[in-house]
């Protein structure tokens, strides 16, 4: 193994020093010529060359180009966020049309599973290939899935459409975070994350209202047709205005060489492992063990690089994201069912009743993003948010048939205020801990765990809901066959019982339904408690790093790698002797 002792002594002095090539015309990542380009000298093999100072304003776009890029990203985030909440008030009508409630869990899980399975792969694709084209391809996949879902004649076709849409969604939000890292300095990103969170919240507010309006006034299928024009506008804006000054292939590698770096072997095991988890736990476990072995062997070229899990804050950020997904998605899905099935609201009324929760998410996200940017520390904000969230999620588990306005409104506000910054927290942490070149993979990993938590816990929530509903129906309304309720639409329970001439057991059946829903709220509340506990484990690190801090960290990385290299060389010498 080569000795890099000399290089380690001058790592921060040499590899952070950019060199100018004023007379040489260069090409940016999208094939746009420029008269001058800042070039960072390549580090020796085995050392990741640190990039230019991430707080150097001159590296980033400015003026109209900057704002057009941000508008494009915001439109893309809006597209994904709208899709994840617009379906909630439409679930009653969808289950009624397809004649079953047993597939509700799959409507969410199919989407989340494919999104989860592709997240790590997108991280590597963004790192190795053209960011802009990858991002546009992800939106195109999402559009295709939305079209299939909108025209689905059966429940199975609907699930397939949601799965295809998930393949695209996997690359949209993480891609937005990656593009943002090449568009804005590190110290300004938390505020933009707050805007993204606020935009997500605005979409969350608009989504249920649109979903309810489409369902009641036109058809639930327009909940997915609406994605087509929005996605088309986003693709045009990104195609025309996005420019990233990063070479697609700085090392001059062939396409095949870069494809081989995608860790296809790991992906071939991870994707079926994720999909098998819900129905084939043994197969998923075996695949997960094999995947862990391959990732350890691949090291930095793997889908989930082991080095990420050796850093305390990065590891905790992944776990944090897992439980954020586990809390949020079951909560939104089954809150909408409570209002429609138990309180007898229409789809649009259920959407309106979700507003206290979703508007609170918007307000909290914007305020918390601004606070983190202003003070430079994320720990106090995350701890405070997690505490409020745990209290709000716990109170929602008390919902009953006659829960008054003051309670269902107030408890949602409390939970929403605690949710605001949590979606961005994991990304803020990893972007503060890792160098720019690792951000695409790290961002995708955070999104992977968040999606994974949503996929698994939506399925878990569906299971505990069905089991709770069946058990409580057998106890409180033994004269009714539970299959009748399971195979009816959530908004048709009262009508079916009236048609059967069993108005006398309506309250008992709705009570059993509510107890089944409570089980799903227990799942979300437990996940919120885990979020609170994990929040205490984050190291306190200031976001606005100085150049000196970054130099010290870069030198430490080089020294650590040299020590590893020297250790390997010593072992080889001993074995040779």
Give the overall silhouette. Answer: globular
Domain module tally: 1
Question: How is the biggest beta sheet arranged?
Answer: 2 strands, antiparallel
What is the CATH-assigned architecture?
Answer: Up-down Bundle
| Through-space gap between termini | 16 Å
Specify the helix fraction band: over 70%
Q: What is the mean pLDDT?
A: 75
CATH homology superfamily: MFS general substrate transporter like domains
Please trace the helix and strand order, writing H or E for each element: HHEEEEHHHHHHHHHHHHHHHHHHHHHH
Main location: membrane
Subcellular location: Membrane
Protein name: Major facilitator superfamily domain-containing protein
Pfam families: MFS_1
Q: Can you tell me about this structure?
A:
Residues 10-27 have a biased composition (Basic and acidic residues). GO terms for molecular function: transmembrane transporter activity. It is found in: Membrane. One of its GO terms (cellular component) is plasma membrane. It is a single chain. By secondary structure, the chain is mainly α. It has a single domain, classed as MFS general substrate transporter like domains (Growth Hormone, Chain: A, Up-down Bundle), CATH 1.20.1250.20. Helices cover 71% and strands 2% of the residues. α6 packs antiparallel against α7 (155-181) and α14 (312-342) runs antiparallel to α19 (422-433). It is globular and about 75 Å long. The chain starts with a helix and ends with a helix.
């Amino acid at each position: 193994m080569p000795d890099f002792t000399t290089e380690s002594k001058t790592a921060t002095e040499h590899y952070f020093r950019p060199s100018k090539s004023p007379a040489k015309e260069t090409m940016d990542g999208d094939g746009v010529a420029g008269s001058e380009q800042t070039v960072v000298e390549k580090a020796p093999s085995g050392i990741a060359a640190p990039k230019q100072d991430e707080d150097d304003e001159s590296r980033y776009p400015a003026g109209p180009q900057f704002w057009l890029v941000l508008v494009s990203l915001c439109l893309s985030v809006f597209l994904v966020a709208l899709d994840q909440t617009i379906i909630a008030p439409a679930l009653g009508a969808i289950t009624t049309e397809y004649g079953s409630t047993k597939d509700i869990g799959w409507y969410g899980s199919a989407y989340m599973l494919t999104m989860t399975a592709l997240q790590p792969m997108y991280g590597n694709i963004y790192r190795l290939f053209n960011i802009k084209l990858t991002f546009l391809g992800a939106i195109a996949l999402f559009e295709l899935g939305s079209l299939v879902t909108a025209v689905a004649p059966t429940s199975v076709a609907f699930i397939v459409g949601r799965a295809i849409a998930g393949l695209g969604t996997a690359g949209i939000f993480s891609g937005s975070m990656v593009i943002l890292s090449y568009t804005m300095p590190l110290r300004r990103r938390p505020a933009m994350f707050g805007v993204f969170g606020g935009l997500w919240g605005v979409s969350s507010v608009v989504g249920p209202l649109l979903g309810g309006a489409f369902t009641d006034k036109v058809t639930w299928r327009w909940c997915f047709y609406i994605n087509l024009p929005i996605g088309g506008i986003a693709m045009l804006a990104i195609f025309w205005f996005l420019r990233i000054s990063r070479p697609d292939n700085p090392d001059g590698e062939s396409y095949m060489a870069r494809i081989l770096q995608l860790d296809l072997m790991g992906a071939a095991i991870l994707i079926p492992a994720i999909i098998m988890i819900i129905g084939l736990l043994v197969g998923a476990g075996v695949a997960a063990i094999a995947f862990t072995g391959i990732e350890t062997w691949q090291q930095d070229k793997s889908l989930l690089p082991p080095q990420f899990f050796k850093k305390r804050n990065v590891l905790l950020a992944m776990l944090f994201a897992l439980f954020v997904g586990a809390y949020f998605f079951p909560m939104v899905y089954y809150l909408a069912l409570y209002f429609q099935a138990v309180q007898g609201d229409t789809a649009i009324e259920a959407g309106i009743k979700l507003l206290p929760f979703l508007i609170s998410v918007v307000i909290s996200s914007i305020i918390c993003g601004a606070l983190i940017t202003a003070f430079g520390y994320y720990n106090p904000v995350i701890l405070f948010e997690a505490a409020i969230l745990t209290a709000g999620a716990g109170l929602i588990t008390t919902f009953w048939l006659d829960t008054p306005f003051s309670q269902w409104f107030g408890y949602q506000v409390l939970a929403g205020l605690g949710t605001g910054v949590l979606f961005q927290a994991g990304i803020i942490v990893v972007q503060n801990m890792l160098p720019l070149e690792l951000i695409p993979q790290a961002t995708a990993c955070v999104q992977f765990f968040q999606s994974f938590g949503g996929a698994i816990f939506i399925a878990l929530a569906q299971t505990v809901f069905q089991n709770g509903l069946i058990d409580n129906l057998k106890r409180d309304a033994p004269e009714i066959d539970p299959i009748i309720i399971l195979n009816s639409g959530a908004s048709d329970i009262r009508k079916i019982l009236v048609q059967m001439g069993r108005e006398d057991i309506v309250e008992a059946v709705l009570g059993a339904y509510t107890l089944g829903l409570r089980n799903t709220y227990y799942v979300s509340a437990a996940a919120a408690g885990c979020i609170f506990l994990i929040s205490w484990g984050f190291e306190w690190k200031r976001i606005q790093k100085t150049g000196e801090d970054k130099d010290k960290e870069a030198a430490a990385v080089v020294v650590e790698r040299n020590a590893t290299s020297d250790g390997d060389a010593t072992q080889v010498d001993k074995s040779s002797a």
